[in-house]
Amino acid sequence: MNTNHVSLIGALVRPPQLQVTATGTSVFECTLSGERQVTDEQGQLRMKPWYLRAFALGRLAEVLAKRRYQPGTALYAPGCLDYSSFDKAEDGSKGSTTRVKLDQLEPIQVPWEVEALENGFRLKGGVNEAELSGNLTRDAVRRDTANGLLVRATIGVTTPRIGRESRPGYFDLKGWRDAAAPLAGLGKGAGLIVRGAVVTEQYADSQEAGRSRTAVYLDVQRALLLAGR
Questions:
Q1: For the whole model, what pTM was predicted?
Q2: Where is average pLDDT lowest: 14-18, 35-39, 82-86, 120-124?
Q3: Which Pfam families does this chain map to (predicted)?
Q4: Are strands 45-57 and 94-102 parallel, antiparallel or unpaired?
Q5: Could you tell me if 67 and 49 are in contact, meaning their C-beta atoms sit under 8 angstroms apart?
Q6: Tens-place pLDDT, residues 117-168
Q7: Domain that holds residue 46
Q8: Are 166 and 158 in contact (CB under 8 A)?
Q9: What is the number of structural domains in the chain?
């Protein structure tokens, strides 16, 4: 059985939304933000902001909406990564989105300040931790850069769901320098446990000038090869 756990502590960026689908399913959506400590290209520690979209379905969505959390509230958000694919409206090609599916959302007392920004709120600290286990869906790609070794890969994870079929997901991995070394040279099918932070990154759309898209990946901090997989 695969592992798919996410633990976040962040500030609610803006008012959450509750929508109801055509089939009658309630959907609660919100964005959380915080900061995490990273090592930059010069080997110096610095704080880097993160923003992540999260959602809940059904009864939990309705419960969370009734709590009416205010922007700037520090929240504890355990859950898992959720992968969804769709057909792009502009050309019918396949696209995908990765969000955090919430198991719960609770106010929490934190030692960090909440900063009010032009586009919402951000916690000046927080927690952004994820653990995934599964198998690589393609060979890991190694690249030696001016900032050190970079390895990219994609892990396939099957997440169990109570009373329903397990849900497959495909999550991008990116490892730098020492964290990249265990990934280098791994082939398709290799079994892994990876731990790190969930990161969003903006990039230019190669098909449409002036448009940007968002990539979500796991910034790998530790990777272990599963024996016999």
A1: 0.90
A2: 82-86
A3: SSB
A4: parallel
A5: no
A6: 999 999 999 999 999 999 999 999 999 988 889 999 999 999 876 666 778 8
A7: 3-225
A8: yes
A9: 1
Q: How many residues does the chain have?
A: 229
What is the token pair recorded at 150? 């970079």
Quote the pLDDT of residue 185: 92
Q: Is the pLDDT of residue 113 over 70?
A: yes
Burial classification of residue 116, based on how many CB atoms lie within 10 Å of its CB (0-12 exposed, 13-18 middle, 19 or more buried): exposed
State the virtual CA torsion across 206, 204, 10, 8 in degrees, nearest 10.
Answer: 30
